[in-house]
Amino acid sequence: MQRPLTGLTTRNLATELTAGVTLLAIAVPLNIGYAQIAGLPPTAGLYALIVPTIIYALVVSSRQVVASPDAAAAALVASSVGGLAAAGSADYATLALAQAIISGILFVLMSVFKLGFLANFLSKPILVGFVGGLALDIMVSQVAKMLGVKIDSGGEFLDKTVGLVTGLGTANLWSVLISVTSVAVLLLGARFLKAVPWALVVLVVSTLVVVLTGLDELGVDVLGEVPAGPPALTWPLLDWTMWLALIPSAIALTLVTTAEGLLVSRSYAEKRGYPFHANRDLLAFGLGNIAAGAQGSFAMGSSTSRTAAMDQAGSRTQLPSLVLAAGTLLLLLFGTALLADIPSPAIGAVVAVAILPLLGIREFRQLWRQDRFEFAVAATCFLVTVFVGAIPGILVAFVLALINLAKRAANPAIDVLEADDDTKQSLLEDAPTGATTAAGLVVVRLAAPLFFANGAVFAAAVKRAVTGADQPVHHVVIDMEAVTDIDVTGAEAFEALEHWLHDNDVTLAFSRVRPPTRARLEELELLSGQAFFATNRAAVAALADRDGPPQD
User: Locate the STAS domain: which residues (predicted)?
Assistant: First the structure.
């Protein structure tokens, strides 16, 4: 087990500390915005940067991944908890805490039972569609904030959109000016001077402008008073029915965070050459989320953007996260008065620019070019998430993942091999038949496990190879090299194929069978005296010798 802060040396200490200051400048304004997206007070976003961050940094195997609430998680919190309580109420905050705790417990269970593989069901198209739908919902609220238009940020997407459009006449000119300037600075700054924490610059400068000119008296909304002091230990007191009502959304949060978090951890571990332990990372997420729910914050995951920023800054340890926690604590103890006059349009601009990549416009274009079915999966998930809700969106995502999996599994590669094992002819339904491996012999390769989704397809393909051959077939050899498993339904289809071959005076044999697969064949009673060959060439030679030379 690696020590916390593995990789920290006297040589890179200054770099890591500098990266920590940069992370503090990035995280504080973003977390204030994410807390507002979630319908929670600014302190909920700041508290997440202290105890949960420290616990995560000391437990996680990754040396670089930064943990924090992000835009997608905040939107999911708002959409799920908003259906159970009014945003801004005490009950709403309590539900958000409970949701984080449930998510944390799920993470710990996934770590203990090594269930991280479940996140693999969230393929790229599903994540693109789901996160893109959440991002669009967030964008409507942030645009309203940037324009100074009052809408119900906890409402449905269509209601918020209608409220925004009908409220355009009430837009505040000064809010629009602050927003346009902020967006321009953020986009141009990110393009030409990436090392500068432009989000912090925007918030500081816009706050000074508001304070010096009194724009808050001209209709520009400001953040308002932020309670000072460190986070306090708490525990959500809810009826058990409310705990149960939070489980579906907590599952969604856990799965999305698992998919994104483990992907980021793995990619940076491979990129920088240090070990990656998925189950330990899940445990870190679990303990961090439990801590978040027990001290006034909300669900947290990994931050791809902040992790990338730390990598670019030269950080290779978790020290910046600890610097972030210490700096945030000092801010809460001595500097909350500095936050009160931050203009809401500037916060909206910071969050809007941060979530632009989450809309997935580039990814949708790529999917359209690469695979129309995958594009349809992403688009469906996107539309359901936007117009129905986040929880239905994640449910549809899993159904689509299973459909996609079944679609691919039901159409495996099935080929007739030539005698040299190097060339083959496909036995797909739309492919021509007529090939044989040698006179009176076909060798058929199934490049997948034999199970319920493809058993009938495989049997039909073998029959088509026998009946469609350009000369009578007396022997069928199944190349089993790629068959790693057989289930009961697949075995039944195979047994029916054996009977059909026997009735048509065609013998059956196997080649290149893996030992575990052979044991499985014996267990399913599918052998009944069939011959085994080490290679396809051996099968061709043996069966050709048995039948004699081919006849003209």
Answer: 431-543
H-helix or E-strand containing 311? helix 304-312
Between CA 5 and CA 60 the distance in angstroms is: 10
pLDDT by residue (tens digit) across 123-173? 788 878 887 887 888 888 889 989 999 887 666 788 889 999 999 989 999
User: Which residues, at least 6 apart from 9, have a Cβ–Cβ distance to it below 8 Å?
Assistant: none
**How far apart, in Å, are the Cα atoms of 168 and each of 32, 80, 143, 145?**
25, 28, 11, 11
Confidence (pLDDT) at 424: 58
The alpha carbon of 50 is separated from its chain's Cα centroid by a whole number of angstroms, namely: 25
Q: Output the six-digit token pair for 137.
A: 């919902």
Percent pLDDT > 70 in the chain is: 93
The half-sphere exposure of 479 on its side-chain side, counting CA atoms within 13 A, is 25
Specify the DSSP class assigned to residue 512.
S
Across 72-77, average pLDDT: 84
Kindly list the distances between the CA atom of residue 501 and the CA atoms of 77, 108, 250, 504, 508, in Å, as whole numbers in the listed order: 59, 52, 53, 5, 7
Within the chain, which residue ranges are assigned CATH 3.30.750.24? 414-547
pLDDT tens, 247-299? 988 998 898 888 778 878 887 887 888 888 888 999 999 999 999 999 999 99
In sign, the C-alpha dihedral spanning 22, 24, 29, 30 is positive
Question: Residues 394-416: pLDDT tens digits?
Answer: 778 778 777 877 777 788 888 88
- The secondary element (H helix, E strand) that includes residue 68 is strand 66-68
Confidence of residue 492 (pLDDT cuts 50, 70, 90): very high
Measured CA to CA, the distance from residue 289 to residue 304 in angstroms comes to 18
Do the Cβ atoms of 530 and 518 come closer than 8 Å? no
DSSP 8-state class, residue 450: B
195-to-26, 190, 233, 318, 382 alpha-carbon distances in Å = 11, 8, 36, 19, 33
Q: How far is CA 302 from CA 35, 360, 455, in A?
A: 16, 18, 41
Mean pLDDT of the chain: 86
pTM of the model: 0.73
8-state DSSP, 116: G
Which parts of 217-239 fold into alpha helices (H)?
A: none
Q: Which two three-digit tokens encode residue 522? A: 């014996």
The architecture CATH gives domain 414-547: 2-Layer Sandwich (3.30)
Q: How confident is the model at residue 526 (pLDDT cuts 50, 70, 90)?
A: confident
Tell me if 40 sits within 8 A of 64, measured CB to CB.
no
Beta-bridge partners for 414: 446
